[in-house]
Amino acid sequence: MKKYLSPTTGSWPAIVARPVFDTKQLQEKVQAVLESVRLRGDDAVKEFTQTFDGIQLDALQVSSQEIDTAEDRLSEGLKAAIKTALKNIYVFHDAHKVKPIRTSTMPGVTCWKKVLPIEKVGLYIPGGSAPLFSTVLMLGIPAQIAGCKEIVLCTPPGKDGDIHPAILYAAQLTGITKIFRAGGAQAIAAMAYGTASIPKVYKIFGPGNQYVTCAKQLVQMEGVAIDMPAGPSEVCVLADDTADAGFVASDLLSQAEHGADSQSVLITVSEKIMATVEQEVESQLSILERKDIAQKSIANSKLVYMDNMDDAIDLVNEYAPEHLIISCAKAEAIAERITNAGSVFLGNYSPESAGDYASGTNHTLPTNGFAKAYSGISVESFTKNITFQQLTEDGLANIAETVVEMAAAEGLSAHANAVKIRINKNSN
Ligand SMILES: NC(=O)c1ccc[n+]([C@@H]2O[C@H](COP(=O)([O-])OP(=O)(O)OC[C@H]3O[C@@H](n4cnc5c(N)ncnc54)[C@H](O)[C@@H]3O)[C@@H](O)[C@H]2O)c1
Ligand SMILES: N[C@H](CO)Cc1c[nH]c[nH+]1
Ligand SMILES: [Zn+2]
Fold it and tell me: Can you tell me which residues bind Zn(2+) (predicted)?
């Protein structure tokens, strides 16, 4: 892990940088995939699946029989865990639904907003290096609460061409029936343009590797909406002397195991914690099942010592992590000062893994500094609003002078006339 000791603000850009591919090369590669799928549909999806996933597919769609029998291939323990997670995620997301409000802005002027589900949505479930069935819950539950009519799910097939049964089971629990064996940029292209098998959707959701994230950003320019750039996972731990070095190291490694391009950062005001976390990372890493992946990620991860908490918090906000764990005595007070983060975990007993799976919050979150401007997934992500208004005759009279004055100042007399014609008619 790269170490920084009391870095001045001049070196912060290097600290907040993520280990990303060259943007131009990535975009060229992804654009070529998008273009092929746009022109050749299913054939191109199958060809890229052969190239990138090493599997030759006959049918892209998963049959209803495969979905229905998936649960037979899961242990009772796993099914119970998925159901507990589902309940918690449902409760949290349902509680945060936006409620419609009717407002009278002036006498006789009433405005309101109607929240409507986005009719056709596409969910991307990562599966290149691990079958992230937890992501099915994170996307399927808010889509279901929002009331989306058509939900399409794409996920890469395993080496045997199968989709992990837990992905199918979680999809079944959330009412998803249109499931396709397609991953990477080719899956995003298929949902953006539509193919003979995979329906075109209005908005694409879900995390993924850099190819997936780039594809989402590129198709967005062609008219399909996306949730956010949710790329390689990252965690930042802010720690003081009260942190437990073993706990902190386990949190850093929990995200490092996602992929070589994940990043884990420790920002601490304690020299002791910095040294002991480094040792703990080494010893815990050596026994991980995904040691090879985590090791690569840890190589591009960072340990930062800051000599005061104010600067440490400023650096966290500049880094804008996907996940922030505050392992400090005054976690709540510090949390109040966090302005840029996807999701925040307070205290020594709030590991990020709890949020990844089951506490209730969503784990699909903005990465690569995008937490400065984007939020994680919520029910709202799956809805759109239409605003409405109704003015009474008196209401129009009350607002007329304001509108006419402003329209005239913009040089738009037809706008002013649309008000004046009504007022004048009534005064004649
Ligand atoms: N930000 C979030 O909310 C969040 C949540 C969960 C997971 N993640 C991240 O999602 C990612 C999942 O990545 P993954 O790779 O395991 O699965 P993935 O499903 O995102 O990507 C796998 C696909 O990438 C394509 N691909 C692989 N190598 C390629 C190449 N050289 N050229 C073109 N396409 C290629 C293949 O088609 C493959 O099917 C991880 O980085 C993880 O950290 C992020
Ligand atoms: N940490 C990931 C989000 O960056 C979510 C996840 C799924 N499974 C395990 N973790
Ligand atoms: Zn995770």
Answer: 255, 258, 356, 415
Cα distance between residue 193 and residue 40, in whole Å: 11
Go through the domains of the chain in sequence order and give each one's CATH number: 23-228 (3.40.50.1980), 232-375 (3.40.50.1980), 392-427 (1.20.5.1300)
Q: Over the stretch 355-414, which tens digit does the pLDDT of each residue have?
A: 999 999 999 999 999 999 999 999 999 999 999 999 999 999 999 999 999 999 999 999
Identify whether 271 is a catalytic site residue.
no
Query: What residues does 2 pair with on adjacent strands?
Result: 302
Q: Per the confidence metrics, is the pTM higher than 0.90?
A: yes
Distances (CA, A) of 15 to 191, 266, 300, 301: 36, 11, 10, 9
Between the CA of 358 and the centroid of ligand 2 the distance, in Å, is 11
Distance CA 207, CA 427 (A): 60
Candidate from 211, 254, 255, 293 with most ligand 1 atoms within 8 A of CB, to mutate: 211
